[in-house]
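Fold sample X.
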Amino acid sequence: MDRVRKLTGAEPLLTKGFTGKGITAAILDSGIYPHPDLKERIIDFRDFLNGQTGCYDDYGHGTHVAGILAGNGKLSRGRYRGIAPDCRLLPVKVLNRRGNGSRQDILRGIEFVIATREQYHTRILNISVGTLEEGKDDEELIQAVETAWDAGLVVVAAAGNLGPGKESITSPGSSRKIITVGASDDERKEEFFKRSRIQPGYSGRGPTCACIVKPELTVPGTGIVSCNARYASTRRAYTVKSGTSMATPVVSGAAALLLSLHPDLSNLDVKMHMCESAVDLKLPGSRQGWGFLRIDRLLR
């Protein structure tokens, strides 16, 4: 996360007091562990798999995503803090201990976030989840995220890890309305790929089946150090993960920073400001969309 903050221009903003305070982001994922970097800002927890009321994350994905979005770096003296370290969190568990989830549970999770958006003052819905094989769209999921968008939520979804072929954006990231995020560094030639299930060039590419240019934005997603859900048992506060799942909360965190500064902005305003703040990487639109998000330009 120290590398991510530097590359996206977020580092100097945090020192100036831009921290996402007053904004709530819902995270649709595998749950959340009450990590010291996160627990003070977890405002509620909903489990659509097992019905538990206490926070837990038996897969570890959701906790890692939450740390990227809003970890305060307490156990690393700030080194691994997230993009919006004062943002409130509403974790919604829809993935099981293997990282799998049913369409119905994901739909129920989205409906819950929409129904409670005024209660929790939720402005952002982070979906680091993708479904089905490349070249196909899940119309139910797309309709659900577009309903969330129409309700005023800034919906940010992963492009998926089925690249580099065309039409490899996963649902619901293939929705024309929401903000879809790819990984800018998915082709880094590093030792990491030799010991990971993920392959170089993994970030989903457009266009979608409906010929929509996707993703909208790219940011770093490879080799990201963030909060470890197994901290209690291993005493390792942080762990490393890669994927467009890790890139997505960087953009959600940027949205939290912008909305905390300008709370009257609509989700369409946020999307357009992000478009204008992206740096052209001189790559095809199917690879980068608008380009690489610079958070310092976004808040300028």
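Fold sample Y, listed below.
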Amino acid sequence: MNTHVVFLPRDPQWAYCFWAISESDRHKAIEAGATSLCLRVADVTGLGLDQSRPHALQELVVDQHASEWFLPVPVDGRDYRVELGYRLRGGGWYSLAFSAVAQVPAMEPSQRVADAFVPFSLDQPVETSTPEASVGGGVTHEQIYQIATAAGTRSRRVGSEILHESEGGQHGLLNDSGAGIWASGRSESGSGLVRQRSFWLVADAELIVYGATDPSASLFIGDQQVPLSTDGTFRVHVPFRDGQQLYPIRAIAADGEQERSIRLEFERTTPEARVNSREDAVAEWF
């Protein structure tokens, strides 16, 4: 494995960086007196490959065992290069690797065009049942990025500091030490507090069927014709209920002499469901 670092701008304010350090390079750095692992973000807009602006250099200390990090972008719309290295005990710098130069996009209105969904139904009887929710995950730094870019976030700090800062403003059931009243021996029942509260959950699934054909063709799903966009694309948005759903798709050329088809089959099951709507939520003693 060779030591390398990759810099990927994500939006005008944040960039993603990941790296790998070979064991030999790590040992050499330790022997040289390495202390903290750091990322140096340099503004290289309009400069040569080996040049940078010293006054525009930003250094971030990262976790010794980390291999990825989200970085705040100093100024959008400029070119940056990342250097991976160690600080030395004597105050020097031990360089490990440089990333390629990447341009951070400028802050501007989004070019994303919202999906235009076509209401669609085959009027096919299906077994109905209440769905259960599915729980998604994600790497820690992806969660940090979502928190860092959420509306109302006051800071642009990096790494796990974002998570600690977002938790710092929460009070109520948590005390300063982090042990809340739900800790052993300190529950509400133990403190003599009795109250009612309601709880609810709703979840469902939807199915998106999409594709493209010649813009002059006629497209059918089952016996229902589906309108095409000017470029020949189509997209239908339908409920995805329990049971089997069939989508036979046919495209017929404008002259009627050519035809293409595909048959899509989907099946959904909900083995367990403990759900209720907000309106149906009943206050319970807790």
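Sample Y note: Residues 109-114, 125-140, 151-192 have pLDDT under 50 and may be disordered.
Also: Residues 228 and 245 are 22 Å apart (CA to CA).
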